[in-house]
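re: ur question from earlier - yeah i can do the single chain one, its not a big deal. heres the input i used so u can compare w yours
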Amino acid sequence: MNRRTLLKHLAAIPLLPRFLPNLSPLIQTAPPIKPFRRVRSSDSAWPGAANWEKLKQQVGGQLIPVEFPLAACVGSSDSAACQQVLNNLDNPYYVGDQPGLTQTLGWVNAWVTKPSVYAVAARSAEDVAAAVNFARENNLRLVVKGGGHSYQGTSNAPDSLLIWTRHMNEITMHPAFVPQGCGGAPQPAVTLGAGAIWMQAYDAVTTKGGGYVQGGGCTTVGVAGLIQSGGFGSFSKHYGLAAAGLLEAEVVTADGKIRIANACTNPDLFWGLKGGGGGSLGVVSKVTLRVHDLPEFWGGAIFTIKASSDDAYRRLIRQFVGFYREALFNDHWGEQIHVTSDNTLEVSMVSHGLDTDQAKKVWQFFLDWVKQSPDAYTVGTPLIIGSMPARNWWDVAWRKEHQHHVFHADSRPGAEPNNVWWNGDGGQVAWSIYSYESQWLPASLLEGDLQERLANALFAASRHWEVELHFNKGLAGAPADAIAAARDTAMNPAVVEAFGLAIIAAGKGHSYPGIPGHEPDLAAAHEDAAAVDRAMNELRKIVPSAGSYVSESNFFEPSWQQSFWGTNYARLRAVKAKYDPEGLFFVHHGVGSEDWSEDGFTRLAAR
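and the output i got, formated as tokens:
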């Protein structure tokens, strides 16, 4: 049908009820979306002191005004108060303890962290429900923050009410758990409050309990937020998505009801929480996750190889791609390599279920190939390939005893000894993003002649910016049960076909507008963002529309619904319409956010 014929048919539609009156009851149209604006703190409709006092009583006094520590530095960074803040900004535990801060401080030309007006420092689902009801009844912008790691700025907003779950960090182990309303055999599980972070989870489940819960690699990321984004950890190539391990959630929906969501009770909501994106469908107050058996060994392969020329670097990348396909493309190996712009291949991978001799044997062929060309390649020191008892992976005392200098520690007086983060994660604390892009790479690129195309694309991309390949963030090569469980989540189905996630990013640490000496470099930001885009375009040439991971993606992603959720997005919209029909819960590029302005304050008149 051509355009003119189509327009004639469309023009006739309003006349149908006149000529076919009996069909009128059958012709239904969706109710129009009415414009609507949430209340800001400067508006006359903003709740008065008596209203806030009533909410404070409802939550047991846990309503607090939100302070913004960086306010001490804006305009001048010389004061003692400012210096104290700046000295603590590289500590993610300090940042996490501030309701007015987020782990990422902003994204140039996108957002900067700004505090809510008030926060409910929730201790229970009832506190969360009270905050949800208050926000709904008073037309307020609502924000939820647990770990506060969102690159998209979803855990902060000015003129808002914050639900801060930091103190809801209780952990309960279950030797035999059965989800409410379900049958089936009991299984080991762990229940974690919404404010728990993964270091707390691993300490309870692995170090103390001798089991494993699939979570995130970064120790300070919030448990609940990661589950809702889908979630990857170092060992996802074996255990699968973090979201796939969700057995049950306690969640407060937009009507203020505290609901249980599992495979038997509110199963549509349960499915949506498994990878549908945090902050869109409700406020999760508690999650119960499957506990897996722990292998005897985990380990790693950490080293660098420097090529002496561009041609040698091309050969090195090509050799590694083939080696990965033959030796590493399985559930024993995860984590990442970096293809850098100075012709260095940085390897930082982890192994599952292999002892040291087995791990070294895997890498021997590749390292022998490198040694055959001493003039072309230099292997950096130290070269580490080895294994350790899996139970001690997050055991801070054991790591110290065995001289494993892998953690930074919280140096504040009275800090918990387990308040640590991996050395490699320090750059993510209090940084401003200049650019961040990711793309899944399908396993088909590892076959036949496509290996050459992949290697060439990686080399070409590295001419513009460093490329990270995260093999644990694609599930191709994982066991069949992990693949099947991932298919039963809201994640983009492309994740099960991908062997890894390519990430290209740029930013600056300790960076915030208005702080002398610590402001983002706007010229550098624009230049770096253009270089990152050019680098990713080299990968897009071989995979035009591969999809992207919602938690590690471009703020300006144009087709975000398709990129983040693929064919699952329509189903997610239906879940959103059922449990949050008025759009109380808003996050940037979250389910249903296309109905709202960029700041989440104004509902648009039409989609």
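Residues 1-30 have pLDDT under 50 and may be disordered. not sure if urs matches, ping me
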